[in-house]
Design a protein that fits this description.
The complex is a heterodimer of chains A (about 550) and B (about 450). With about 550 residues, chain A is α+β, with helices and mostly antiparallel strands. In chain A, about 30% of the residues lie in helices and about 30% in strands. Chain A starts with 8 loop residues before the first helix and ends with a strand. Classes of the chains: A alpha+beta (about 550), B mainly beta (about 450).
Amino acid sequence: MRPPILFGRRLWVLVLVLVGPSLVGIARVAPAQVATTNAQRMESIRQRMEQGQGLYVAKSYQAAAQIFEDGYATYPYSAFLFNAGVCYQKLATYDRALSKFRDYLRVDPNAPDASRVLDRIQVLEALLAAARAADGGDLDGAAPDAGEETDAGPADAGPPPQIAPDDEQAMKSLVVVETEPPGAPLKLYQRTDTSAASFVPDAANPGWAEVAATSAPANLTLAVGRYHVVVEKFRDFNLSQTDIDVQPGHVHQFKANLSQGEFMAFLRVAANVEGAHLYLDDQAKKRPEWGVTPHGELVPAGAHEVLIEVPGFKPFTTNVQVNHGEQREITVTLSRVDYGIVRFHSNTDVSVALDGKPQGDWRMGSAPLEFQAAAGPHLLAVSSIGRKDLEGTIEVPPGQVLPVHATMIQKYPRGGAWMEAVCGVVLIGGGVAAGTISNHLHDEMQADREAGTLEETDSRKTAGTWLAVGADVAFAGGAVLLGLATYNFIKDPLPPSSTQIDKPAEFADPLKARPTARAPLAPRAVPERHAVKSPVRLHVGGAPEGAGIGLGARF
Amino acid sequence: MRFASSRPQPYLAGLFAALACGCSWSRFGDVTENTPVIRLERPDNMNTGFGVMLATGSLDGRSLLLVGGEPGTSPAALFDLGKGDSPNLTTLDSHFCDNSQGKCFLGSAMVYLPHTVTSADQDHRPVDSCVALGLGKPNFGELGVLFECQDKTAYSRPVIAAYEDDVDFALTHDQNETIAVAGDGADEPLLVVGAPAALTTGRAWFYAPGSDEPIELRPPQKTADGYGTRVAAVAVGSAGWLMAVSAPNSGELHLFRSDGTAATYLGCLGGTPGFGRTLATGFVSAAGSGPPELLVADYDAVFVLDTSPLAELPEATGISCTLAALPPGTLRNSFGCGSSKDTGECSSSDFGAALAVADVDGDLDGEVLVGAPQMAVFGTHGVGAILVYDVDAPGDGALSDVRFVASGESGDALGGSVAAGSIGGRDVIVGGEPRSGHVSLHYCSSLVPPALGGTRCE
């Protein structure tokens, strides 16, 4: 068995890199801002780790490897290197896998699993050598770097050890252990025998093996399994301890409040809406928001009330009970409000009505006209002087802004058509009048003829004839004019007025436009305790809501 | 997503409805084809008074109409009414009394002579279509009652000697002197002439058939002014002729009897205003066996007198103008103005301005045509109408029909003169509208039986 690799120089460098900025920040900015920055940083690391883990489980090894590599480039934690190496190994890109594992040991030479990583390197080197032999040494990128420092030993040290194939549990996690005050010595034990009894300080503890001894804060790359953290006596503080169940591809954060002799709980809130505002124990929202989803942070153990708000969604409140050292992750599903906002503008001055109710006038150059409407279909009517009316149905989305742009087209000039229609009607009317008079004259003449008093050159003959001709001409002319008028009324070369409805947008969030400084959480009224020994009660439980996992510990 | 506004809908229903209301103008041609009333065309040379007087006659079965203009100043025209429903609307001759054959003063009443023997012809051969027009002096003859024929023959008959100087003065000085001429209806008629004599005392005389000798009709005493304004003659069989000469200004109608050689004064009828303003003769009675009746109008009524008892009156030596002296049964009918639903204003219609007898219904006895030139038609005053009275039996006086021109206008004064033209076995009513210069032929009447109506009365 290889001797455990204890704290090395590089780890200290890493710790300084990680903790240094935080310490400097603590000295320069308000503690609340530092806490927020750390929380956001840890949340970013957590998201990348979980994203890579998800891709790995989905066998998208290349994408997962890229996520881990990017993660390491941003946050140089060795867990990213190891996980990327596993992904490359899965892809049979052994040279790159070897490179990652070697980087892993170089960055974290005292890693608890350094010996197993060396075994993996030997296996990979053997596989690479065999492949080169089979392919004539022309394996793409397979040759390890000549000057690469490895601890693999001589090449002829015998057959390479056998390593178990990587499964979904192969991803390593980042475990951050902090203390308040910082600097307390701590030791980390791994349960090597699943049937081993619970860890007892200062006992033999068979089935448990020490994998790390360092001081807080510590960032450890750990494989899946159960661990036990022991914070040694420090100054006037007593020993604190807790169990840790490490999940694959996660980020676990633990913080021990040595004055209380307890680890703080970690609460993470996720929602189906990113950026939702979180208020912790602040229903009245008198303090700045706690964070925005997803957000996780160490919180005092106990009951908490979480208010989640985001414009366009119904406020959501939930009560969460977290215990000391517990990692609680909740996911809530926010439902949208049952109304939406129509954001309207046009290419000209218009009057807008929705379902027959006026909503206002919009003028050129002014801000878009916004009005609230119940979610669902609505009849939108837009009118503008001299332009074609517009009427149609819009579907107002719940909790979103529906941008509507109306293009109002000018009415096609109908003056000529009206003139033709008026002239046509006048002609028809004149024709009717002339025809009526003509008919009357004819009837009179017919009656006179029957009475024997009609004379051949009766002037009514001429009048009636011309009236009849005039009536027919008027009918014909009126018909032509009305036909032309009808055609010119129907004729419309211009397109109808129309609307362009863009993709619904989210409600504007006024909180995003202002600083989000957050006051520190109010300290919990917990009696100060120092170096109080307490029996460890370790329990593992799922999060009450959502997909988070929880690990609780009480000292 | 896009949606568009709706467009205006066409409305063609009104258009098609209007087109469906088209009017036919040809129906006016249909309704005015073979109209029941036609108007004769006025000759260009008759500018004034066309239709003031009318006279009819027949020649070779054709009905001829003589239309006179303003007495003394206008010529007369002859029209051929034909035999059927299609008269010749243009004149046959419009140069009667146009001074082309000699000096001529058109009289107030004319007589058409279908065949006559003129004094101008030494061989005494009869001449067709001559008209006794009025006073005048032919180019080749003496002054007197002027006759002009369609063959341009003109001759005259001498007036009575006491009247010659007046006629000479009038002709010499171009002073209008109007006479009235009437005949007894025979082809070679007895002609009676009345000269109201604007310059001196009125006179009257007659010419026996075939004679150029004037025989004066002179009452035993001086007559009232206007004597001779209207004259009439009726052949009364063996008794000779009964002649009537009126002085309507005084309401006097003087009666004479003659055997063709001399005249006997029979007395004077009258007593009512305007009595004798118009005279006519004709067969009004259904009996038809006696002589024609004498029709006399005053300002209110028309009287139908039996001429037989009048002709047998004894000679009178004095003048007493009254209707009370009429022999029993002489006054067969008398009637006043009547109106229909289309006419009115009888009291001011100038009822009786013209008289004629016409067999409108073709029953061989005549109906009395009475002109009422101021009668209102369709509410328009002065259009004028011709009232038809079928007075078959004694006592009949009901209005039978009213003829007018439906398109007449105020001032036409239809009925200023009336006549009857025999066509197709019945008489067509001829009415003068002298104020508007029209003469209208009325082919139809409610009295005309369908068999005689022809196409114009269908």
